[in-house]
């Protein structure tokens, strides 16, 4: 089931416009509110064998998709299409954060980021070999988590004092117990097999005030994928993700000790809720030095992540500048205090 | 008569040059124990004068033997009270090295004292450092070399702010290089590490503060242990020990003593 969004004015294909947050027609400029967009204008085509092939309604060409694609554009006529059958039932996202950064803005921001690369090779900084920039809705699971934490620890308080010719060190030991409820809301975990987990984690945080109820027109003109892992399959990953947060919280409840030795941290994590959400990411593919580098940009905040190539000569220059500068500074202070020049 | 007059005027004329010179000629080496040869004494006098002039402080050496029964410290103090040395005038800035040859080898005392600016720049700790460094030469009866080393050390210490140890690592080039390299490596290392973007979430990003709380807590006292260690008296960090004091004439001084 392929969904096209037709302009009620001129019949051309409409796309989601990140600036206005509306569907916009590129031919006549007409805009439609997503909440009120008339279903009449959504044309759906049914295929005999849906799982295998989709045909563009405009030009009849085969729309190239893989098993995970839920939205794409026709490679011939460019019409944004949504594969609605892959977004229904169990696969229906609950929420979406729409793109707020357009392709042009993303490109510009990326170029600026490249230019600021203090350790990247000169040729990379011009960003003139960007092969491809793709707006993509990446599937995430968001978890609301309730944690019941039981902590047993030994705390020490150390006091030193002087009496006569002796220094006394007094160590008091305490049995510390805590029973804590710690809740987290909407912790995201990337549910796509193709996306690098570390890269996606670094894209956070997203502004959750902009979470919208999912509607297919948000995807018009972008690539989108469906999840490869269920919320249960990723539960261990989200638990690992909040482990550091939990430790920080626990530490904040055990104050006033010189040292704390945890003997037991019983953490029971319960999933209160999980949502299937789509989060906006600009993927930038950059050919440099015969290698493809992949960068990701948060489609809402503009934060860019991904390892750019490292220029060793620049790193050496920075190092010698900083080390040399500090050496001169130390030496100057030492000479002012009366040290020798060498 | 006329001849006598000419002679008298001539003598007066000569004395104009010589007499003030005699008065101005300061003595730096008071070798009562007679441990230096005449040549050494002359040489040390010249060097002491140079170093003293350069550092604007009188740098003296006193030696004594058993014919004077006083300990070396009061000996130096009394000398200071009586002679009133000082670069900037009577009872002024002075550093004194005292060598007492009363005892046998290994039981002879040395003392380094600083008065006024000397007390500030050659404080107890620095005096102890000088004492420690002089002992090897003194132990093999190399008094002349020990004296030269004493001049060099005072010369060096007078130029170094009292807040740092002149022989410590803080003023050493290798230390500056090491710290500079560590700082450079740390900054460039973190730049490289952060090239790919930093994690900007923290423990409070996803926390639901309204539903997070400590349900129960207890901090129960179990027991205590007490250990005691004897406080080490500050001996100046080496064999040199002692500390300063006050002369009978009321001049405060720093100092450290040792044996050779
Ligand atoms: Zn139109
Ligand atoms: Zn087409």
TrEMBL record, chain A:
Gene3D superfamilies documented for this protein: RNA polymerase ii, chain L
Membrane listed as a keyword: yes
Domain of life: Bacteria
Keyword Membrane on entry: yes
Regions crossing the membrane: 315-337
Record's keyword terms, sorted: Membrane, Transmembrane, Transmembrane helix
Listed name of the protein: TFIIB-type zinc ribbon-containing protein
Organism per entry: Oceanobacillus neutriphilus
UniProtKB/TrEMBL annotation, chain B:
Pfam families: TPM_phosphatase (PF04536)
Domain of life, per lineage: Bacteria
Keywords: Membrane, Transmembrane, Transmembrane helix
Segments crossing the lipid bilayer: 174-193
UniProt keyword Transcription regulation, yes or no: no
The protein's name: Methanol dehydrogenase
Biased composition range(s): Gly residues: 235-248
Compositionally biased intervals (Basic residues): 250-260
Residue numbers spanned by region Disordered: 229-260
Keyword rRNA-binding: no
